[in-house]
Design a protein that fits this description.
alpha/beta; 2 domains; Rossmann fold; 41% helix; 6-stranded parallel β-sheet
Length: 385
């Protein structure tokens, strides 16, 4: 049997805790042999990988100076030097790479000196923030157009992201939809029942950043808690807004009802979801243009049969059909979010139906086996060209 063709996956950091979806995709390849190129290899216990399949690319000694020069003087995205590009090119040849897959659009900009050579077919995947941030800067927009020109294919997690790339100047012919894949076996169905004595457990799992709408969740939960004082809200995740959110909890008088769990490993998150009744994810567009693709934690929650309340934002409506597989409310609408919570607490039939139909929706559209097959078909497509 001939050896599988090699796909080189470039991740600047392999891998941050919130990048489990990237790990699943690389590990799930069947028709291609993965090799990872990275500048920093961390969390090896969370994301075990064969060391023979990882190449750590040395960072430039002048990276900090290049960042200052690019960001503050030229007002353009930072990129690697020509020397770094040549070094990566040698690594690709030594690994006999057939395709280069660059994870995240801003890393595509970083690698532009390499991608302009295009010695092998290249795909760049966009996941959310990397499509909308800094689009108000002319130099950034020009670099994005250059990236669209030199990449063979641009992958997006949602149709909403595809529209964002087209608005930024990308040809529709180059865009391919490659949704997040969820292993249904890893997230088994766990039916929910209405808790006794109003002891509702509510969960949000995400990075603690502006676009996740955690302040909205806390304010809605405060109103819900007044009606259901035995309710508890768990926030799983890490991020820069932790002190701000903790201060908001104190201001709302919710210290005994809200728990910050930090980042949870997959098994711990699964266990947390199984003892939870409602999952919140009220995403919104950040002040810097940061938007969602389709939140992975939301899909995992839906896969377990956990009823979801989310927003009409980004790619979320492509995963959640209102009043069928979840409830959707407008962005930044605390009153609507509160009303949705109270509605589920008083409608056991709807609670059950949303859980069952949510899992069915994920199984139909986001099954990991089918989505990895889609990705490998894209790799085959660019190789054939």
């Amino acid at each position: 049997m001939p050896p599988k063709p090699v796909v080189a996956s470039y991740c600047v950091t392999f891998l941050a805790p919130e990048m489990l979806h990237v790990y699943r995709q690389i590990r799930g390849l069947q028709q291609f042999q993965p090799v990872v190129l990275t500048e920093k290899w961390i969390h090896r216990d969370l994301f075990p990988f064969d060391p023979a399949q990882v190449e750590v690319i040395p960072r430039s000694r002048f990276r900090a100076l290049r960042r200052i020069w690019s960001k503050q003087i030229l007002r353009q995205p930072i990129s690697i030097s020509s020397g770094q590009a040549a070094s990566i090119e040698r690594t690709l040849r030594q690994r006999n790479a057939a395709v280069l897959h660059v994870y995240f659009g801003h890393i595509g900009l970083y690698l532009l000196p390499l991608l302009r050579k295009r010695s092998i077919p290249t795909v760049v995947s966009f996941h959310g923030a990397d499509a909308g941030v800094d689009q108000d800067r002319p130099q950034h927009r020009a670099a994005m157009r250059d990236l669209f020109r030199v990449a063979d294919r641009l992958l997006v997690r949602s149709e909403a992201l595809a529209s964002e790339l087209q608005k930024a100047g990308c040809s529709e012919a180059k865009i391919r939809l490659n949704r997040t894949g969820i292993s249904m076996e890893d997230w088994p169905l766990h039916p929910r029942e209405v808790p006794v004595h109003g002891a509702w457990r509510i969960l949000q799992a995400c990075r603690l950043i502006e676009k996740k709408g955690l302040d909205l969740s806390l304010r809605a939960f405060a109103a819900f808690h007044r009606e259901h004082p035995a309710a508890r809200f768990t926030i799983a995740g890490e991020g820069p807004l932790l002190p701000t959110l903790q201060a908001l909890v104190r201001a709302l008088g919710l210290q005994d009802a809200v728990e910050f769990r930090g980042f949870l490993k997959e098994a711990d998150l699964r266990a947390e979801m199984q003892r939870t009744h409602i999952f919140l994810h009220p995403s919104r567009t950040g002040k810097d243009g940061n938007q969602e693709g389709v939140p992975n934690s939301m899909l995992e929650a839906m896969a377990t049969g956990l009823p979801v309340i989310a927003t009409q934002h980004g790619g979320i409506p492509e995963a959640v059909t209102h009043e069928e597989s979840g409830l959707l409310v407008p962005e930044n609408d605390v009153a609507a979010l509160t009303a949705a919570l109270l509605r589920l607490a008083t409608d056991p039939a709807l609670l059950q139906a949303l859980g069952v139909q949510g899992r069915a929706a994920v199984s139909k559209t986001f099954s990991s086996v089918a989505r990895i097959a889609d990705l490998e078909a894209i790799y085959a497509e660019v190789r054939a060209r």
